[in-house]
Design goal:
Elements (H helix, E strand, L loop, with lengths): L1 H19 L24 H11 L5 H7 L9 H22 L2 H39 L24 H5 L2 H14 L4 H7 L4 H4 L4 H10 L9 H16 L8 H7 L6 H21 L9
Length: 293
C-alpha cells in the first residue's frame, strides 16, 4: 500500500541519516512498541529519532507509530538489520556503476612507469644530493655514517650497505613502492583487460582470444571448460550486444541484460568484473575476501 511504503521510506531515511552522521542505532532497551513518550531507559538513537519525527507531526508517521502492530511498525532489530543490508547493497551497486576499473589500472601503470624511471635515475640524482649533504655536515662537524645494525630488526628492513651513501639512498623505498603497486594492482591488469571485452560497448571490437586469460583464471567457476561452447556463448553475447540501443559501459548494467539461463558463463565472468573493485579495495585494506560470498 502507498501509505505503508511512505512510512517505510521515512524509517529508511532515518537509518540513512544515522549512517551519514555516524550515529549509533542501539540503546539499552530498543525492542517492543515505540511510544511518543520518552522511556525511562535509553532506547537508542534510531527509536529516539523516529519518536521525534512522529511528535513533530511528519505527515502520516505519527498515526503509523500509534496504530501499527509490533511487526508492521518496521522498527524491530530484525527489520533494522534487513534494511541496513539492503541499503548497503544499493550503495555498493551505485559505487560499482560509477567505477570504471580499467582506466584506473592505466593510471596505476603510468605511476609504476614513472617510479621505475625515478629508480633508474636515483643513483645519479642522489649522488649530487649526498655530496651537498656531506659538505654541509662537515661544516657542522657532523659525521655521516652507517647506523648500527642488529641481528633481528623488528620495525624495519635490516638493509645491508657498503657505505653511508648507499644506505641512505632512496632506492629501497622506491623499490618497495613499485613492488606494492605491482602486487596490489598490476597483477590483476591482464585479467581486468580480458574481462572488459565482455562490456557491450567493447564487444564489437573484441575477439574470443581476448577473453581467454579470464577464462583460464576463473575456469573453476565456469559451467564448462569446453572452448567451443564458450566461444559460441561469447559470439551469441556479441550478437545480443549489437542489438542494444543504449550504450552499456559497466558490468552492473551488462548483468541486467545477461541472464544466467541464456549466458551462464558470460554471466559469471561479468559478476567477477563487477565485484573486482570491492575485492581490490578489501585487499588494499589488508583483509581477506571470499569471492563465493
Amino acid at each position: 500500500m502507498p501509505k505503508n511504503r511512505d512510512n517505510l521510506k521515512k524509517i529508511v531515511e532515518t537509518l540513512i541519516l544515522c549512517g551519514q552522521q555516524e550515529i549509533g542505532l542501539m540503546g539499552h532497551r530498543d525492542s517492543g512498541r515505540l511510544t511518543l513518550e520518552a522511556p525511562e531507559s535509553n532506547d537508542g538513537n534510531f527509536r529516539t529519532l523516529c519518536r521525534f519525527r512522529a511528535k513533530c507531526g511528519v505527515t502520516g508517521f505519527k498515526e503509523h507509530i500509534l496504530s501499527s502492530g509490533g511487526r508492521s511498525m518496521y522498527i524491530s532489530l530484525v527489520i533494522q538489520n534487513q534494511l541496513i543490508s539492503i541499503i548497503g547493497s544499493q550503495i555498493q551497486r551505485k559505487i560499482l556503476e560509477r567505477v570504471q576499473v580499467t582506466k584506473y589500472f592505466k593510471r596505476v601503470g603510468h605511476a609504476s612507469d614513472a617510479l621505475e624511471n625515478i629508480r633508474n635515475n636515483a643513483e645519479k640524482e642522489f649522488q649530487q644530493i649526498f655530496t651537498k649533504t656531506v659538505k654541509l655536515a662537515e661544516e657542522l662537524n657532523i659525521e655521516i655514517r652507517l647506523p648500527r645494525r642488529v641481528g633481528t630488526q623488528k620495525h624495519g628492513e635490516n638493509y645491508q650497505a657498503e657505505n653511508a651513501e648507499q644506505y641512505y639512498r632512496v632506492i629501497p623505498i622506491i623499490e618497495d613502492l613499485i613492488r606494492s603497486l605491482e602486487e596490489r594492482f598490476l597483477g590483476q591488469k591482464e585479467i581486468i583487460k580480458s574481462l572488459d571485452t565482455l562490456i557491450p560497448v567493447n564487444t564489437k571490437t573484441s575477439e574470443f582470444k581476448h577473453l581467454l586469460p579470464a577464462i583460464e583464471k576463473y575456469s573453476d567457476d565456469l559451467n564448462t571448460n569446453n572452448e567451443s561452447m564458450l566461444r559460441t556463448e561469447f559470439e551469441l553475447w556479441q550478437m545480443k550486444c549489437a542489438s542494444f540501443e543504449k550504450q552499456i559501459r559497466t558490468a552492473v548494467e551488462a548483468l541486467q541484460e545477461c541472464t544466467e539461463d541464456m549466458f551462464p558463463n558470460i554471466n559469471k565472468l561479468l559478476v567477477m568484473l563487477a565485484v573486482l573493485p570491492v575485492i581490490l579495495e578489501t585487499i588494499s585494506n589488508g583483509h581477506k575476501i571470499d569471492p563465493e560470498k
